[in-house]
Amino acid sequence: MSGRAQLMWDEAVTGYDFGPDHPMDPVRLDLTRRLVDAFGLDRDVEVVAAKAAGESTLRLVHREDYVEAVKAASEDPGAADQSYGLGTLDDPAFARMHEVSALIAGQSVGAAEAVWRGDALHAVNFAGGLHHAMPGGASGFCIYNDASLAIARLLELGASRVAYVDVDVHHGDGVQAAFWEDPRVLTISLHEHPRTLFPQTGWPEETGAGSAEGSAVNVALPAGTGDAGWLRAFHAVVPELIADFRPDVLVTQHGADTHFEDPLAHLAVSLDAQRAVQVACHELAHSYAGGRWIALGGGGYAVVDVVPRSWTHLVGIAAGREIEPEAMIPEGWRQDVFARTRQLAPARMTDGRWPVSYAEWDAGYDPADRLDQAVLATRRAVFPLRGLLA
């Protein structure tokens, strides 16, 4: 085991571009990569450009007819088959869509291979985390489900247990669906309640099927949940399940759209709380997965103020060189942001809420509190299925 972290990056992933009016602006990837470089993190990670996922790899999760539909839409975007979710408002077709989507997937699969082989202890693909794509269709800005493909590759390589923790504001429905009946994969998703946000799934009663009952975990958070509630929910559910499951590898998805500035959702989480969860996931990997950690990006549509800072913190944590929240952002990056976007960039790597605090679950709960009701619903639905006390 080299112990060195890998950052999966190929500049061509910025070609994942649904057009100028779409909220998933690829500038968020470019600005993140530039901020990572501005902080000198390239000295602490091995930057690797993995090959695109080939068709046999894509078919570990996706149906052959869907892959063919994506390829056809890439050749002729105007003729995209909407029955596969392509050419829609959420997922407009664009030239070379198959190639760039497969490239993003390849970075996550490459991360899985590197961590499993021991070439790296941690690997980050912040262009990944496209967790809504289904075996037979695009959904929610996601063409190929790189997170599911990375997990499937780990299983193919011999992993017996893989845990997936998703803290994007949207439910990780595609990953849950891919492993709904597979007890080797524990999927945990913390997300805004499906009553108020796409994709309207991720209810606590969704717990898996067959021999995998209890392997899908969903914490549906009330709209408006802020730092203290978000961290309370995470720590009330995730560590105990990971400690019980003891995965060979931990895969985490760090969508930055839980942030209070995000335009597409309704949680009120700060950058500082996002960083706290990133640190917690790193610690869980070391405590229960032999340190093997694959960290992915995801959603996030405050593309200047939030996404680059959040994912640069993630890279720093994986690299073993955490960036202090109070750190000033290099002026060169801020000037570059203004030149590219005509937006003023933030000055520091914090929202001013560090250190974040929350009430531990073991100290007691309030049955009348909406956040505590959400946590209770999840614990009661899943914990007994896994032989744990709710």
Throw out a few tags for this protein.
390 residues; alpha/beta; single chain; 10% strand
Question: What do you see in this structure?
Answer:
The protein has 390 residues and is of the alpha/beta class. 36% of the residues lie in helices and 10% in strands. It contains eleven helices and eight strands. It has helices at 27-38, 55-58, 64-75, 97-117, 146-157, 173-178, 227-245, 271-288, 307-319, 331-341, 370-382; strands spanning 5-8, 45-48, 122-125, 162-166, 185-192, 216-221, 249-253, 293-296. The chain has an eight-stranded parallel β-sheet, sandwiched between helices. Helix 1 (27-38) links the parallel strand 1 and strand 2 (45-48). Helix 1 (27-38) packs across helix 9, helix 4 runs parallel beside helix 5 and helix 8 (271-288) runs parallel beside helix 9. The protein is globular, with a radius of gyration of 19 Å. The two termini are 37 Å apart. The model has no long low-confidence stretch (mean pLDDT 98).
- DSSP strand (E) fraction? 5-15%
Radius of gyration: 19 Å
Total helix count? 11
Helix content: 25-40%
Side by side, the strands of the main sheet go: 2-1-3-8-7-4-5-6
Q: What would you call the shape?
A: globular
Class from secondary-structure proportions: alpha/beta
Number of strands: 8
Distance between the termini: 37 Å
Order of helices and strands: EHEHHHEHEHEEHEHEHHH
**Overall mean pLDDT:** 98
Query: Main β-sheet, in a few words?
Result: 8 strands, parallel
Low-confidence stretches: none
State the oligomer.
single chain
